[in-house]
């Protein structure tokens, strides 16, 4: 977390005219839980 992957990913997707998919946001959407809570419970590799 916090390494800038999403920032760079958004920039690259924009340059390539592609939709950016943020995995943290998708996990939050699917679980209804904050990503930091999911990482606390499951670990980042979970």
TrEMBL record:
InterPro entries named in the record: P-loop_NTPase, Shikimate/glucono_kinase
Gene3D superfamilies: P-loop containing nucleotide triphosphate hydrolases
Pfam families membership: SKI (PF01202)
EC number: 2.7.1.71
UniProt keyword list: Kinase, Transferase
Example GO molecular function: shikimate kinase activity
Enzyme class label: transferase
Protein name: Shikimate kinase
Gene: aroK
């Amino acid at each position: 977390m916090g390494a800038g992957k999403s920032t760079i990913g958004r920039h690259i997707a924009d340059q390539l005219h592609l939709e950016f998919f943020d995995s943290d946001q998708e996990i939050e959407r699917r679980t209804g839980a904050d990503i930091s809570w999911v990482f606390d419970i499951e670990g980042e590799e979970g």
